[in-house]
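Morning run. Coffee first, then this:
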Amino acid sequence: MYRAIPSFLSRLSDVQLSVIWGLVWPQMLMLLCTIVINLTDTWVAGQISPGAQASVGMVFQVQLFLMIFAGALGAGGMASVSQSIGAGRWQRARRFAAFVLLACATLATFLSCMVYAVADPVLVLLQTPPALQAEAGYMLRVMLAGLPFFYVMQVGSTLFKAARQVMAPLIAMLLSCIINLAGDICFGMGVLGFPAFGLKGVIWSTVAANAASGMLTVAVLKRGGLLPRDLVPDRRWMRCAARYLCKVALPACCNGLMWQAGYLVLFAITASLPNGVESLAGFTAGNRIEAILYMPATAFMVTASILVGNYLGAGDKDAARHTGTALFLLSAFTMSAVAGLMWPFIGDIARIFSQEQTVQLQIRHYLFFNVLAVPFTVSGLVLHGVMNGSGATVYSLLVNVIGFWIIRLPLAWVLSHFLYGDAYGVYMAMLLSMIIQTSIITWIFFRWDWAAFALHAQRAR
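And here it is:
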């Protein structure tokens, strides 16, 4: 153990803490802005009516599902652009950036039209109460109209990060947050003498915020030199580039779909318990608290993707592996310390989020197991970032299928329904499966040749 400490410190000095911190803190602020936007929409809708709040929640779930495809394109963009820049091939990086941006705008437009045509059946599938059909339908259609802007903003942010330009997407996200916050309060609630449009004010404020941020993102990408003068690359080049993007994006897309579907099943297992209402409330609140805790972890994950992609693009596999190891250990140590500070206040946090003692107990159980899981969850996220940066997204898919579908879901069903008769078993299954998932991806990181998935110099020149 004592020999491992100097090795760890040596790797940190090689990576440079200042570089890591310079990449991490703007991403943490971006994630915080996202949380503020979501909470503001939910809170303002709650001030209008319970039905408005329910409609916001339903439309948000549809948006989350549609953003899986943007995340997949972002993974392809991160790998290709970061590796191209690491190799010093800026022209190739610009072509990839333009190609990914065009692909995301085209895909978002296609998805918007497709879902728009079946908006009513989608709401029926989501079990939308008849009284909310009109309200939720209006919100869904407006959200779909603004989806291309949202795609461009999210994927464009990933392209900036791939080039280590984290301040530009932060400014775009701050702009989106300010417009959304002001629009919700002024036009949703009618504060400061503005007309109160209710739910229409909330949804149009969100679309306006996304549109402004999306257009700013494209303008800064162009001005910053990350897009070529001709936004449409050569067709022959695009055919060659598309093969690599599909190799990275398709497993990432399957991974996102699998994860979202897995959580729906996990929610169903929890809801089917004898105390399903209290268990589901505790699960939901605990999950929201956990999301705040993992903001830094997500920033570490993206940082790993950026740095590993740069090093692999430059052909330096050793530096990529050392960087991944350093971030793996650093994130586990720092976030474990944060979790340790949080541990004594679990009961107080539960009381903040619910007045019902039965729900408080469920929140405490959720946080007990998931705070224990922090070292595994955080370090595992960083290694998933390494796989994204190298283009080895198929390994992330493999690990999550084994950990979630083969281990977590069956174990959650058995422990909760047959051993404990309570969601305590679900939370225990989350901890045990996370330990196994992290162990598997750690084995892959140290034993398998994940760097072989990198974009080589002879491809897509």
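The chain has two domains: 22-233, 247-461. Good start to the day.
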